[in-house]
Amino acid sequence: xxxxxxxxxxxxxxxxxxxxxxxxxxxxxxxxxxxxxxxxxxxxxxxxxxxxxxxxxxxxxxxxxxxxxxxxxxxxxxxxxxxxxxxxxxxxxxxxxxxxxxxxxxxxxxxxxxxxxxxxxxxxxxxxxxxxxxxxxxxxxxxxxxxxxxxxxxxxxxxxxxxxxxxxxxxxxxxxxxxxxxxxxxxxxxxxxxxxxxxxxxxxxxxxxxxxxxxxxxxxxxxxxxxxxxxxxxxxxxxxxxxxxxxxxxxxxxxxxxxxxxxxxxxxxxxxxxxxxxxxxxxxxxxxxxxxxxxxxxxxxxxxxxxxxxxxxxxxxxxxxxxxxxxxxxxxxxxxxxxxxxxxxxxxxxxxxxxxxxxxxxxxxxxxxxxxxxxxxxxxxxxxx
Length: 385
Ligand SMILES: Nc1ncnc2c1ncn2[C@@H]1O[C@H](COP(=O)(O)OP(=O)(O)O)[C@@H](O)[C@H]1O
Ligand SMILES: [Mg+2]
What we know:
By secondary structure, the protein is an alpha/beta fold. Helix content is about 35%, strand content about 20%. The protein has helices at about 5-10, 50-65, 110-125, 140-145, 170-175, 185-195, 215-225, 240-255, 285-290, 305-310, 315-320, 325-345, 365-370; strands at about 30-35, 35-45, 70-75, 100, 130, 155, 155-160, 160-165, 165-170, 205-210, 230-235, 260-270, 275-280, 295-305.
């Protein structure tokens, strides 16, 4: 008996759900023949136990039929992502976890962070989506190099665009260039809901959401529509930015969103010529606030020209320069975020029941109460309890 005989036998085993067999797919890896015994390793792409079982049973059958007395089939498969244990309202139930990326104000690097964290999570082998919910300044398409791509429409659903291993959707991809909209409370709510319901996201492990700056209707609507597993705050080391960040952290608390951590962006400067790190806006100033909110600074990302160039040129540093110091810090932050999300799920998950609107449908609690946030760059705090 030869390897070819084994392959011939295994080519009768079709991959469940497909017409092709496991040999044609290239899933059959190691074959060890020892007299009448054979050991085969099959490396499949599905993490479903039923797929593994079916292949194992059929492969054993075929190899016995081919004349082997002792047959051992080792099935290798990707680790099954932990199911989310979250409860409450979820209008996108195929998505297991939601990561809300927030900042007190614009320009601190929220989109840059969202993009690089999403890519770093995908590089860990997770199924990742990136929703650009910053309706006021949707710049994720440019950063992901997909600004010229129009999404495909299937029936009344829109397919996300795939870039750098991440499924992406943005208001920027849906609008004509230069078109601008004036957003009112009810429109924001509708837009956020449509992003979750009418985009054909696949069964994602995590959807990273780049929120508009501030704490307003978009944040509240998102938290009411899906159970947000974790919040990530982006800040710069200056005090002004830190005051704003406190608002963002307060908002997570009010919305019952567990805080995965803070990213201190533009923290020092790495000179491209020498690789030396300089302190510009101050550095490490975020730590006390992290303590105050019982969380931690999970990355200090320096000002690095390659980050800005990567953003403007649609070539994110985490994808194109994985060996750079910043990419490594994003990767480490992504590890910490994912560990945090897993821990949240292990310990009962999140529940957004307590923050559901008590106002009539179509009217957000933010739009009615005092301190309503109709301002376009956020700033107002939502009046939820
Ligand atoms: N660490 C960094 N080093 C260099 N440039 C950065 C860094 N973080 C962000 N930028 C640049 O700063 C600008 C603002 O970042 P952006 O992510 O768009 O902020 P936000 O989404 O918070 O408004 C962009 O041009 C971006 O490329
Ligand atoms: Mg942005």
